[in-house]
Specification:
Elements: H1 2-13, E1 45-53, E2 62-68, E3 71-80, E4 83-90, E5 92-95, E6 98-100, E7 108-113, E8 119-123, E9 130-134, H2 140-152, E10 160-162
């Protein structure tokens, strides 16, 4: 009897599976948080895509972020939602860590940047995009941290493709 009660209690503590709509990669009711202490100037540079949602049907992409007098601009070619997404233009800041990016199905929220700005985890509240950008080596500990951030923000990690 005690074992049955323990099993029932344990089952009640387990997290329910994320309910994700078709074409989306995160649970719509999950809270989502962007990096509130992001230094936008440190985003400038060349980034390569090391993972993405819906990214299994094309080669990993890249993004170049530039800092100019008018703010940040981006030129990107990313594997997203099963195809290649290309675009360029101003990254219009909504607030710290949140940007409207031309040609994207949702804003880019920087969910996490490691302390040295070598890895960025990007997501969108609408769940239609999510990817990891990196520069330099990409060790297993940063991949694990990036996955934890995506999971915490409601992403379905079963749909994440790591290159």
């Amino acid at each position: 009897m005690h074992r049955l009660i323990f099993v029932l209690l344990l089952a009640g503590c387990m997290a329910a599976p994320k309910q994700v709509a078709v074409g989306h990669y995160r649970a719509p009711d999950a809270p989502m948080y962007s990096n509130a202490v992001l230094d936008p100037a440190k985003l400038a540079g060349d980034w390569r895509q090391v993972a993405g949602f819906g990214a299994g049907k094309c080669a990993p992409g890249a993004a170049r972020i530039s800092q100019g007098a008018a703010g940040l601009t981006v030129a990107y070619r990313l594997c997203q939602a099963g195809g290649v997404a290309k675009g360029a233009g101003a990254m219009q800041a909504q607030t710290v860590g949140r940007f409207d990016v031309p040609g994207q199905p949702g804003p880019w929220w920087v969910l996490w940047a490691d302390a040295d700005y070598r890895t960025l985890v990007i997501g969108a509240p609408n769940g239609q995009l999510g990817f990891i950008l990196n520069r330099g080596a990409f060790p297993a500990d940063r991949l694990a941290a990036a996955k934890d951030i995506l999971d915490w923000n409601g992403y379905d990690l079963k749909q994440l493709v790591v290159y």
